[in-house]
Every structure is written in structure tokens, then in C-alpha cells.
Amino acid sequence: MSVCEQTDKADLLQLFTAKFNSRLLVGTALYPSPAIMRASIKASGAQIITLSLRRQNPQQQQGKVLWDYIRQSGCQLLPNTAGCKTPKEAIALAEMSREIFATDWLKLEIIGDDYNLQPDPYGLVEAARELVQRGFKVLPYCTDDLVICRRLLDVGCEVLMPWGAPIGTGQGLLNKYNLQTLRERLPAKVPLIIDAGIGAPSQAMEAMEMGFDAILLNTAIAKAQNPVLMAQAFKQAVEAGRNARRAGLMVKRKNASPSTPTLDMPFWHQQSS
Amino acid sequence: MRININGENQQVRDANTVSELLQQLGYSGNRFAVALNGEFLARAQYVQTPLSENDMLDIVAPVVGG
Q: Do B63 and A51 touch (CB under 8 A)?
């Protein structure tokens, strides 16, 4: 086995006690069709997928296709509490998710503003505390505020999912200073997943180069003209960014420095006699 | 009796328990979950949870999500 193969084998994403080869998590929404969703998820290599719960009457059968896919996908399911505005709503939806999906993993979302879908930091901490006590593995969708992230760790979250930009905007990493601060100031053992706002593979790669552990996205793949190809592009970008981080990026410098040896250069700087 | 089901006030045949009402509405299998008056109600509780006039029942099922 080569050195590279050995290194790659050791580089797994660990969330709680589970380990994953893929560092790309994807949503299941907004695809042109269930078939394209399935093909895109496969192309992304994702091993963790997000989904949700909504009101349904017994005559509606559209959920069956999704249900059948979920059961045979083999992916870790990550139900969300999208749309919830209070801890009470999120906790009730979390319990319903745990019963239906048979997992205690939860993407905790509590929306504090309808315009930019910004997480409500106070509600998030309150709900996270209660849900951790109830045995949930809480992955909170949060802002990039260092102190809020610390509070979430204090109440028992083991993984954090700060936003890159508001959901569905595709604006990438809007506040790199804050994001870099999270990576530098929070313990290295805490997995940080950039969730929301990623619009291009280059943005995902940059986040991975910055030291984030994984990327969660949906719209950028689902709304691409060719979602399957875009899923593949994100897979490659996340892997490339991760490899770059592990390899160690060079330090930027102001002045040029030749990469080709200058010693013994012919014709160069010859003294005229 | 009057029950609010998934946000709509509905007149339903009298049902003593959540289980009876779900049966009446045609819910079967395990592809749904229930909240009664905003609080999660575990599946095992359906048979022993009484219903009252104007109770609010939310019945949810899996959908795609991001």
C-alpha cells in the first residue's frame, strides 16, 4: 500500500461515534425529479442526507417514493426542523422525526428572521440543551458567531454547522474572518460543517482549505442545469480542499520568488570584460 | 366532534382516542407521526390518549428537505 492510500484511509469524518468516507452532506429537496435526486446523491458520494417532515393526509402518496428511497439508501439520515420558529415547535418536530426515521440525529433549525432565514441564537441554545438531554445527537444550524457556538458546545452539542451565507443564496463564505475565527478558537476535535449558502464548488473547496470538516448543501446541486454533474464537481472540490488542508498550504508572501533555480543560469548577469 | 386536523377545523365522528380518530381518517402503517396540541404523541400512546372537543392534531410524514 502506498503512503497516499494509507493516509486517505485514515482520513475519515467522525461525527459522534460514526465514521464516514465522504465529507459532503446533501439535501434531498428541489431536484427536478426523484430519479435525478437519487442519481445526484449517488454522484456526490454523500453518506449523510437531510430530509424533513410536513403535514400530510392519508390520501397523499407522494411521500412514498421518498420513503422507499430512504429505506434502501443506506445513508445516515439527518432530519431537520426547518421552518420551526420556537424551541417548542422544534422539540416536537424532533421527537416526531426520531420516531419516523428511527434516528436520534437531528439538524436543529430555529429560524429567527423570515427574510434571511437567520437562525435564532437564543432559541437554538435553549432547544439544543433540551434535545441533548433527551438523547438527541444535535447538529445545530447556527450563525458564525463564536460566542453562540461556544454556548452550543456548553449545552452538549458535539458538532456545529455554521452558515456560510443565508440558505439558498449561493453567496459562499460571506464572513471569512468569523469563520476562520471559529476554526481557530474552537477545539480542533469539534467537527465544523459549513451549512447553507454554498453556491459553487470553489466555495466548498475554500471552506475545506480553511479547515472545516465537511460541507452540507442542497440548492447548488439540485438547481444546477445538470445536477448529477454538479454533484460530482462538489465531491471533487470537497476532496481537493480537504487534501489541500491536510497537505498544508503555503504561506502567502508579498514579493516574487523564483521557483526555478537561479544558480548557474546561462547568459545571466555575465560580467562584460 | 370538532377537531383541528393539520390546521383545518373538521367535524368528525366521535372518537374516544387518538387511535380511533386516526383509523377513521384512514391513517395506517408507520409512515407518519403525530403531535397533539403541539406536543409530540408517541405511537404507543395513541390507544390510550383521549380526544377532547377542539383538540389540535398534527399528522406529519417524510418530505424532502435541505
A: yes
